[in-house]
Structures
1.
Amino acid sequence: MEDQAYQNESLTFEERAKALVAGMTLEEKVFQTLHGAKEIKRLGVKAYNYWNEALHGVARAGVATVFPQAIGLAAIFDEDFMEEVADVISTEGRAKFNAQQKYGDYDIYKGLTFWSPNVNIFRDPRWGRGHETYGEDPYLTSRLGVRFIGGIQGHDGKYLKAAACAKHFAVHSGPEGIRHSFNAKASKQDMYETYLPAFKACVKEADVEVVMGAYNRTNGEPCCGSKTLLQDILRKAWGFRGHVTSDCWAIKDFHEYHMVTKTPVESVSLAMNNGCDLNCGNIFVNLLQAVRDGMVTEETIDGAVTRLMVTRMKLGLFDREMPYSDIPYEVCDCVEHRAINLTAAKRCLTMLKNKDGFLPLDRHKIRSIGVIGPNADSRAALVGNYEGTASEYVTVLDGIREAAGEGVRIFYSQGCHLYKDRISGLAEADDRLAEAKAVADASDVVVMCLGLDATIEGEEGDAGNEFGSGDKISLGLPGKQQELLEAVVACGKPVILILLAGSALALTWADGQEKVPAIVQGWYPGAQGGRAIGQLIFGDYSPEGKLPVTFYRTTEELPEFTDYSMKGRTYRYMEQEALYPFGYGLSYTKFVCSAKIEVCGAKAGLIGKDARTGAAKQDRTAVQDDGHVISAGSIVKIMAVLTNIGSYDGAETVQVYVKAKDVPGAPNCQLKGLKKLTLAAGERRETEIVLDMRAFGLFTEDGEKRIWPGKYEIYVGTCQPDKRSVALTGNKPQVFTVTCRECAVVETI
């Protein structure tokens, strides 16, 4: 084959892609819009499958490092570490891709277009896919999403290490069982304040290469064919230049379930004309008929295929040499990556209760430990969903046995099934209860390993039991687990409760029990999770995880699952007291945080509007530090000092929240800044967190974020400023008050 014009590396990727597409027939172009794109041998275009997953490690393609599930990574509250993890993932992704290409494997899960991260907001704890997300807060989700994308895509300047994908755009968070027909109704204010910010950050800050549409409709429009989302917001308002993919088989939902079209041809036309470039599925073959019928122009398809080819060119798939082509297979699940994985597992564990310092245990004073529960020796409870294959899995039972050493006897009982009433099919109900009691009686202390796994908490179609779609029907422990817990506690031995689950459970009973002195939320902690839990129990390190979601007391506190209004949801809008609040997590050591603030004048380029005339103006007012007056162009510098006054080395997150005191209907305090610091015992460290005026703004229904006249409170500490957080931690954030004197626009959608 002679050299083609698109192989001229002196041209831009867009010029090369246009040249390549110009040489394709209509049929060839249409088949390039399917996730399994066909080879075009005469043009030297290899087959390519866009469908690949890397939520917390390279998934579904053999051995790779299996990190904690996304919600567990979020609990680390550390932007820098998130990028480090994502960099490992993309390194292994490249290594596997290079090997697969060498041996001619172009199958599904073998490409470099990773359909991660999931930056949907975990607005309701019943949602089965919530553990794929970074939690309930748009600021935290934005920061982690941006840094995950940075790690996946790399910083070469020309080539992508891999292509990340922000999904599912937009307003998608259950219920799973009706996602193919559901219309998520959200006010513009909720859209701008909650559902869109993370996607905007991924596009405008991280330059994410791919955006995936959601299954549902949003305010009447199917997301994968929504003019509002894909054209008006994504491409026009945000300037997105990458490609858009549908969720898998979502476009056929247009006519089969949403009923917004009548035929497959109408459905593909709606999707393509509104900017969906790639079809996960095969329904886009109907574009051939759509062109013949005049419903889609060939020029529109040219634009879509050009964008797809630009992505593949950025990945270096048409070039002779590029920076990542020599990454060897040997890096996959290597010793160094397993070490980072163990660090991630340790850092994600979140201690919810530790009465009177019950933990850590002293190896020299414990003779026997009973390990009981359906998640004690479960690999499934380590990994969540969209997982890879680890070369080693360390369950909680394995980890405790390893950490305890030879001098401690370990007893084990499964106790009960994860959600059924018996383990053996021919047995009566509660067929392991007597054994569990016997284990408790024989032990000095009991570690109860309860919770969920991805067989009952996950995506519609993945979870196949009486819990149906993958959503939770309540926040209670499923099956016989609560009965098992109560029976073991009644035996009188102290119980350490380890929850392996990707979402909040109602732990009110356990929280109130004297005989349950310690509770640890383990999430789905990855293949090394059991080792991390064992070491935590014996104090080999201090826990540092923070909750990226609110733990409620009951399901009854929540609005209807199908109600997408944010009223009454998450720490930002809830009115009742949480069981365990967002941002909460205990440590073995003790930190104190002090801070001061400085308000600086206008920053060049930040334009406000006169509240009376609407005319634009530049605010260059110099504001004195002691005045604490903010205006459109101000920035607030927070100088925080964190001191570890305990006896353990450890890490803590400085958290900054903002509350508009005088704006009717304003949310509760909102996270607007964070910084994770690691300190040795006795060490003191300073950090600076800068807030611009967007941190103080609130969106209106017309899509403008404004700062309003009145007082704003800034809270600086290691937890939320709510009464429950203060009571649980004994730490009260420092509060500063700043005043805004006039209304100004600080951001538009």
2.
Amino acid sequence: MDLIMEPAILVKIEKMKQRVLWQHQSIVQRGIDQTSMVIDDGKEDSPEFSFMVIGDSGTTCQDGHHPQREVAKLMLQHRHECRFVLHTGDVVYTVGSREYYQSNFIQPYREFLRGGENPQNIAYDNMVFDTPMLTTLGNHDYYDVPFLYRVITGPTLELRRLLRYKDIEIGWHGSEQGDAYAKAFLDYLARFNSQQKLEFHLDQHYTAKTDSGRCLRYEPGHFTRLPNRYYTFRYGGIDFFALDSNTINQPSPIPETQEGDAHRKALIQRRDEIDIEEQQILEEYDRLNQDNPQDAEKSDEFEARLSQINEVKVDIEKQLASHHPKVDLEQLEWLKQRLIESWNSSEVRARIVYFHHPPYVTEASKWYQGQTLAVRRRLRWVFDQVAQTIGDMNGNRPIIDLIFNGHAHCFEHLYTTDTGYGDSNINCIVSGGSGHYPRRQRNNGPELMETFDYISGSPTRKVADSLLFIGRNGYASSERFPYSGVRIDVKAGTPVKFVVKPFVAERFKHKWNYPEIKPFEIG
């Protein structure tokens, strides 16, 4: 029995629309843009500001230590200098269940929340942030568990302990097709049971104005809800775009050709190989004595490897099952139009996009995934359309100044080459190492190559360079587990300069240390 289920893309889209009452009559009549917001902190016009980025954080204690909390402690050192935090997804592991928000989100980030001195009193669907936490959806925030699994394991703690290697923080409910995330972070308009209450709420909180109409006013310490699963805001002359990459990551179908058949056979062979590897790990796992400290440390390693194997298997199954891929064209079209509008505004100094699945990454389990390539090519299509529309307006500047992602459990800085498309010369930062098991870099080196059409046999060429990678490294007694986040300092002027300051909490030989990472400038 599969222990994790993922809703179909069309289900994700429609469910989220229902929760925010997408294009409801009362919203349309007021000229409200449900994809925009204004952060009203009295400082939003300042050209110099700082913010943090974290991702893949939503875990609790792991054999007596708490990586997410260690990263949160480092974040507190920057909190008073940073205006907000971007979160690149996977807010709560393993299936985004509401019952884990208290231990896996509220407790670790309690100082960022109103009433955080008594975090046990904060309901997951009633969080108010003193320091804005601007989230995006990760794949785990959409995951669910089968009903039969709930019946068997929900009330049976001992059985769940026996299944620990496949039941890390799964819980009873699952995300309920992303409902827990929506209630935690979005302005869940469907909760209003009368037209009068809805209209009162809209007139109270949708009072900000942008070029696209009225929009939600995000007020730190008072009202901190996001307008939608994807959204945009302007701060300090920078346009930020948050996307839901879970609806644009469906791999393209494998063609019914000789080359396609060879690719399909290679995927099946790879799946069979990792099935054998998984069984071997499970057999070793079963022989561990959890009361032995060395065995307990080794169990962490096994659980990390099993988690990685599961993600690879999920991606292979998605590729094999992809016959008529569904693509969230509405979101892609929205991004295209908003980027064009951004380039036509003299007030905008730079553009930042953040979402979960990285289009460029060299972490061992993600760089070759079908989902990675799907997101890359769909965003490339958007950027191409924008480039054609704006002509030479951008000069020598890239369409996007910075892309932030999670999903890969590491910190990484990549820079795209001249790909021949609209995704050329972009700085990409993966910040997905903020709590879950850190991963290694692949063995293929820092140059990221792409075959643009493996069916026609087009040549493979370099599309990006990995300039910095912070992830799991070393083996046995020399193995290190670095967990990370990053601070970004935005400088005044145009073109904008960004100072990137990674911060790291590293687990090594049962102790925490905090290595200094040299800041670097981009832009």
3.
Amino acid sequence: MKTTSKILFFTFIILSCKTNNQNINNENLNVLFIMADDLNCDLGSYGHPQVISPNIDQLANQGVLFENAHNQFPLCSPSRISLMTGMYSDQTKSTMLQVHLRQTVPDVVTLGQRFKQRGYTSVRIGKIYHYGNPSTIGTSSTDDVSTWTYTINPYGRDKEEEYKINTLRPRQYGGTLSWLAAEGKDEEQTDGIGATEAIEQLEKFSKNGKNFFLAVGMFRPHTPYVAPKKYFDMYEMKDIKIPYTGISNEYLKTIPEPAAKTIRWKQDQLILNDKSNEKLAQEIKEAYYATTTFVDAQIGRIIKKLKKTGLDKNTIIVFTSDHGYHLGEHGHWQKQTLFDDSTRVPLIFSGPGIQKGVRSNSPVELIDIYPTLMDLTEIETPSNVVGKSLKPIFQDPVYKVRESALTRWRASQHGSFNFSESGIQGYSIKTERYRLTKWGEKGEFGYELYDHKNDSQELNNLVNNDNYYLVLDSLKKHIDLRITDARKIPEGVGRQLQEVQLRKESYTPGDIHDINGKRIYMKPADD
């Protein structure tokens, strides 16, 4: 073969390969989506003076941090379904735990599914849709098979040694305050294993050149707060502050009854409002912070690998949580309220084309993640998505995509405080400065108004303050418009069905149950 002919031949082969395998050059942007579970904004990058979170903080320094981001329903499953579909809970018809996405909106196109449609490999590691945590660790729980190309379900020492965990109620972990300074290494814990799996996936993608949507869902700092002991040693328990404001009966009388009951329904944790139990409260809060730092370390491992492979030059990183979390504020622990502690979430974007070290106070919502990623990767957004792209904020940090962020809550969720017969619904909006919460279809169960300029802890309800009459009137009209808009049936959503909560079963490894599921042997903690 002549030299000229050889050159033409090999040129043809190279061009053919590029034509037949568009992934060789990996020209499209990849996405690394990292989601924590029950993580609030107690992070260094959000101004917390104690919490050690260097890797999340560094991620914020390399991208855009949203100060005013909020979930759409402060409970794991509904929030995650809203995020993955880009729709409000009124539109997903999902408001309970243990509900599969396709039970209520079987035809919807999810975030990972859309990437799959465009040739991406869509991978889930850990918890993205709802898991009973820790009950269904190691399984696919209520996952959606249509979202992913394949999935990985880590199962670690924290699950195997569950019987060792300290808890306010024996063998109650997921919804009960519980904690453990664990023995062993990071890599033995479920989230440590998840990080290792993510590292292996990044290595693979760096070699095969395929575009990916890699979703890594951490199980912590959700209860039980389990992390290796070294993370507990990073904190001085005596320095942990417990807020005792908003715990008096006089305070409860200043807010609507449904609001008061959202912060008093967890009976087992009310003992922490007694200052005689302050050391116990400090121990529990320290465990939450230690677990947060453990999660931060796993995120650091993943991002380090991303950079080592060079994939960071072509990968958008998104970090967030499914909802906020009370740590004694208003005399409440955990989530399921319409206060800022429960609605507000960390949200950080970093990667190619995104400015570094930018902070935005624009009100944004978790459902905005879906259209933003579509915008950044230049993929057409499905018509069922009602969230708004945040890309304009990346270009102009003072830009606002909306005037307020909307969160909904069902007061009927609260155990013995059952409002299901009266149908009480709560909706809350957070603007740049104010929060307005409305209880009842027409506000018949009351309103709450908070001015964050003077009251960031939301302890002074201004509804009856004449100085705020015009603000209240304006925000009442605004929240009604937001609610009406959130209830509209999105174009392309397809069928909307009634949700049915699946039966929940929880087993601690080592316990023995009879044929009826009753525990007949409980493995001791010192075994």
